[in-house]
Amino acid sequence: MRDATCRRARVDASARLDAELDGAAAHALQAHLDACAECRAHERRLAGARAAVRVRPAAPAPDLVDGVAVRIRRDGARRARARSARLRAGLAAAVAAAVVVAGAALPWDERPRDAAAADLVEGVRRAARDLSAYRADLAIVERGWHPRVDERTFSAAVWYEAPERFRLEVDDTTAYPDARWPRADVTVIAAAGRRWTSAPSRCPARALPGCVVASSGSVRTVPAVRHVVALSRRAPFDGSTVVPTDIAVPVETISGAARLDVSGGSTLLGRPTHHVALAYADALPLVAALDPAQSWRPFHPLDRVDLWVDRTTFVPLRFRVVAARAPDRAAWARLHGLRDGPGDVVLEVRATSFTAPDGLPRAAFDAPGAPRESSAGFEPVPFGRVPGALVPRRVAGLRPYRAGRTADGRAVASFADGMSWLRVTRGGRSSVALARATGEEVVLGDGGYAYYLPADATLRRRVALAEGRAGVLLESNLPRAELLRVARSLPGTGEPAPRVSRRPGGFTLTRLDERALGALEWVSLPASLPDGYDAATPSGAYLRSSRAGGAAVTIEYRRAEAEYDGLGIVIEQARPARAVPPSPAASVAVVVRGRPGRWEPDDGQLEWVERGVLHSVRAPSAGLAGALAIARALR
Length: 635
Prior knowledge:
Elements: H1 4-17, H2 23-35, H3 37-52, H4 76-101, H5 115-130, E1 133-146, E2 149-161, E3 165-172, E4 186-191, E5 194-200, E6 210-215, E7 218-223, E8 226-232, H6 251-255, E9 261-268, E10 271-279, H7 280-288, E11 304-310, E12 316-322, H8 329-335, E13 345-355, E14 372-375, E15 379-380, E16 399-405, E17 411-417, E18 420-426, H9 429-438, E19 440-443, E20 449-453, E21 461-467, E22 470-476, H10 480-488, E23 500-503, E24 507-511, H11 514-518, E25 540-546, E26 551-557, E27 569-575, E28 588-592, E29 595-600, E30 605-610, E31 613-618, H12 623-632
Parallel strand pairs: 8-14
Antiparallel strand pairs: 1-2, 1-13, 2-3, 3-4, 4-5, 5-8, 6-7, 9-10, 10-11, 11-12, 12-13, 15-16, 16-17, 17-18, 18-22, 19-20, 20-21, 21-22, 23-24, 24-25, 25-26, 26-27, 27-31, 28-29, 29-30, 30-31
């Protein structure tokens, strides 16, 4: 955090999530977020935390332990009052169907990736190293965005030069009902050290042609506006402003997917293609690359993405999003005011031209001035002056790129080759502490400890090592195995995170290894999990206990390369419990393991009580059928 402006922005971001920010303050906050990567990342973490922990009244049971008996629902309660009544009938019908077909229509299976999928992953990773530049024109059709504008059309032009130069121009060509409707024209220009954006306000589609804001208990509509902002003196590969390179070669989409179905494709632009089918939850980096203003309609995690990539360059030449046939998707669609039916094509993107030259004119990445230009405060230094402690002995064949010091005093060195990159940051204990508190513990070869986090919707893979009052944070789009090899080659060793910590209110938090977790007789563990997850090796497990005798266990499972929903699979169990706590959110009763339970489609959470233990399975990307299968696998 750089100054008082950032502190004010973070307070306002919390207020905006509670719908308690007026129009002027909301616009000022958005302008700051457009210019400040750290505050944007903070806002996303805050939203994710609110989705994961929610406040609600505890059931009449003694000591369910805070965080399990009491769930944070700051925004859920408001939403529920408005939509619960109209959703229950549709939810009940969808869930009834889901319970019948859950065992036969899972969104995943236990098959390993076949040879074709493995070859494709290897191919896109090679292409990411080989690509130096990319230029394409695209045609986009989006369906179901608004009841009065069922179809929107766009043309887009993309320029990319490895590793950080990027330009995206999206031209909204939709025939809107009248001139009041804001056009979703977007321009993003990024080069080493600077980023420039021009984008419309982020307004809820249902509220358009105006933006709805809440202030002092009242709601009003204001005209949508356009923001033009610039950020200078950017650090290399600075978190949420990393350029969306998957539109050039879909390396994150392909390598991070839980399952890929690869088949022979068609010929597009005169070039033979591979056809790849995967879930939208895995294709987020590709789809989101063309929606930097986040103005598109929502997509269900289980919607199918059909992708056609050039067999030689692995450039995506076409993709589409198709509404899933998942049993609970109809209820989800009603929740978001959508009218999609199973099999409907809700988004289509097609390249009308593309080329992969050796380079592009520098003028393509020149950006104009902006009325609001901010500085990230990065001070570059020659790579020859970088301290040895900042350079790993192994950097996966990458070359030195940019180095320097951030505004808050952290030393940075980065390395790149084509689209592949690595960033090493020393100092800044807070980011290391966050990764160490939430990441998977990995024992390094020299006895040190590292903490690993897969890629999420905004950040790539990270490895943190703590060293006294300082620490090292590695960030990269390299595969997990390569990134851990880099971490093992760093000077020094990482310190282990505390196993036991005391919390206010008389609670104790204990980090559990696999042996300690298995010794808890009242805790059920999954015998199997969806493809991409290892049921025998949780990413993390934690026991919260109280002086009164209540206890709760949280078990986290993440895939090795990416979790674009930010969660993966979270299994919680707490005792003692007699009933599922009441919930004000839209939910419906289901039968889980022969017992009454509750499914919440907006949060992807299943809850029930069994033998005095409150069980929760949260798997946003698996849908109801997947959550029920995980519940049945508990032993």
